[in-house]
Amino acid sequence: MAITVVGSVAFDTIETPAGRRERCLGGAATYFALAASYFTDVRVIAVVGEDFGAPEEKVFTSRGIDMRGIERATGKSFFWEGSYLENLNEAKTHNTELNVFGSFQPKIPDAYRDSEFLFLANIDPVLQRRVREAMPQARLVAGDTMNYWIKDHRASLLEVLKGLDVLLINDTETRMLAGNSNLVKAARAVLDLGPRMLVVKHGEYGATVFHRADHEAGAKTFRAPALPLEEVIDPTGAGDSFAGGFFGYLASQPALTPATFRRAMFYGSVMGSFTVERFGTERLQLLSRDEIDNRFALFRELTHLD
Amino acid sequence: MAITVVGSVAFDTIETPAGRRERCLGGAATYFALAASYFTDVRVIAVVGEDFGAPEEKVFTSRGIDMRGIERATGKSFFWEGSYLENLNEAKTHNTELNVFGSFQPKIPDAYRDSEFLFLANIDPVLQRRVREAMPQARLVAGDTMNYWIKDHRASLLEVLKGLDVLLINDTETRMLAGNSNLVKAARAVLDLGPRMLVVKHGEYGATVFHRADHEAGAKTFRAPALPLEEVIDPTGAGDSFAGGFFGYLASQPALTPATFRRAMFYGSVMGSFTVERFGTERLQLLSRDEIDNRFALFRELTHLD
Questions:
Q1: Paired strand residues for B170
Q2: The pLDDT value given to residue B219
Q3: A228/B220 CB distance under 8 A
Q4: Domains of chain A (ranges plus CATH)?
Q5: pTM of the model
């Protein structure tokens, strides 16, 4: 099944203890699409500026990603500059230039309208909702958000949550959204807001999926680990890559059973673990399905008793 | 196989968001011994003061714990007062009175000398080493330590590490001991100091065991989760209870295979998860092996794909 993703395609300048990269291709939709492309067809809705050229285009086309929904606008692409010098788990933002992204109005190509899977990456909840409503055929809808929307655009965000099957956010965002510091209680409060599943990403400790009580039988809380990595080169995009692996795997499966969701959690962790091994999307551009499945086996060994 | 544990038996005054308890029975050796007592025979070496009376004694004897190595001294028992009001993951210490523990000289009853399992809880490394040398028959020796010994008593601690099979410490202690902020590199550096296994406790995210490269074949890095808990009443003793479950299970098994160590990690997490559900040792005093094995099954469901 094809996935449509709406979100940012951007240029990032990143500094980590391993070095610095100027203006590498980034953005949530980019990481998500690359990660998901190893599992299924991916279609992107985004906007880029005149600085988005042939090399960037090739990153998408090489992975067979449908770019018909990537609008070219006059001006520059979304730009972000950040560093992880003191703490690899948390980016320090030095500069954000919305540029053409500031007036982004998602346009959905007709060819995308049969997508049964829809991912709303971290953008203005008003836009997330508009895309969701314009694609009523989507039968599994997942989304992300961030502290800024939780704090200052709560009403719009709550509308989005009502239409989500799966929300993927991190610990801090979960606690902030629920107003509760206990993760389990916070998860339950978030599930009461609409989504029937909540995936909480714990960074280097993996991720946990919580289900609404009234969800399908047999779906229990499940925790996927992250791989203990000797070298984290650049954490940017790990969460979006997790979402891409998670959702891409789901879209590739004939049935969405509780076991499918557990495996999807593992594939999410697998894709996140690759992303952080190189700067930007470097590692995600050149994987093979064999490498992915070998790492999946490593994750199984890391966590399974037998 | 019997385990001998040396460490503190104390009184703790604890304040958490769930309430306050005055002078409840605590100490690393207490939590360890109670947790391990559900798996095997446990013998304690410690010192207590005149405030240690019949009710405290009963906590040990009710669980069949051998107290012949608990010396009664003139004065008061070790006392600690702390709170977890802002952060359930980190205690804020308000008061520490060493009392009779300040001049503790471990005395090993002859009846303990055939213990094949020895646990050196978090005490002065000089004493840890003395006990280890006095019990040469011990074939599996595990130990704990803390930031204070790592920073200010490094030379003594390094001597202890040379004689350890398993070191159990937390993330921060691992990074501090190794002087490296990457957990995998830090773990390798710690294993170079002597122990052939390092168990790193991650609090609410579980624990990871790292093995020395030259360790038995098939022993790979393994991560046990912690249970996502709706109510953490009191985190005191969770790490010592983990150690008790881990080591107690090992001592109860006929052979120490890699699979045994993986299951021991799960039992460690299981015992830690019980401890935090009540104040002090309340929950650990009244468990059944059925409750323990049911929770073990929950941990398996939480992490296993099939």
A1: B201
A2: 73
A3: no
A4: 3-303 (3.40.1190.20)
A5: 0.94
